[in-house]
Amino acid sequence: MKLKFTLFFAALLLSSVSTACNFHGGFGIQLPSHAGLLTTLSNVALAEKHGTISTRDKPETILNWQLAQKAKNKPDIDITFYQVLQGHYSTISGHSFRFFDNYQRETAPVEEDVIILSEFSVFGSILEGQLSMHEAMKLELVTITGSEIAKDQVKLWLLDSF
Questions:
Q1: Strand-pair partners of 118
Q2: Alpha carbon of 125 to those of 42, 59, 117, 137: distances in Å?
Q3: I need a surface site. Which of 11, 52, 84, 101 has the fewest CB within 10 A?
Q4: H or E element: which one contains 89?
């Protein structure tokens, strides 16, 4: 019986390692070092805890489509989206039928890349009118990293779209 429990827990442990995200490797999570990540992470967590933003009531596929309908004329910049609570990367697509697309690169983004740090729940709350994009940026629920020129372009695009 003891052997069965040992094998069961070993299988659980090994299966979690084999399905781990490429960027979190091994046992446990490695937090990326994007500028503003810790501030955005804590602000989003507190906002969800205090009910300032909704906590993912809407299915992601519907949210993805609704965001794409509002976000027109994406700047001609590669933009990565990092979910600060979930720890996953997506690509901002610019398509009219989906805002987020699967992250295709083999490596994590670097400091020079344009990254929007936030969470789906923040964008869902913006769509529902709980807060504006301007408020979300002011409260640091949405943070943009990258070069100053690219950050300004993405910020203006988000403010115009939402």
A1: 83
A2: 17, 13, 15, 13
A3: 11
A4: strand 88-92
Closest CA to 28 of 16, 46, 15: 16
Q: What is the pLDDT of residues 8-17, one digit of tens each?
A: 444 444 333 3
> Any long-range contacts for 88-92 (C-beta under 8 Å, 24+ apart)?
88/21, 89/23, 92/116
Give residue 44's identity as a one-letter amino acid code. V
Q: Are 157 and 132 in contact (CB under 8 A)?
A: no
- Backbone angles phi and psi of 81, in degrees to 5: -115, 130
Name the pairing type of β-strands 79-83 and 114-118: parallel
Considering the entire predicted model, what is its pTM? 0.80
The whole-angstrom separation of Cα 113 and Cα 93 is 15
Instruction: Assess contact for 118 and 143: CB atoms under 8 A.
Output: yes
Q: How do residues 105-125 score in pLDDT, each as one tens digit? A: 888 888 899 999 999 999 999
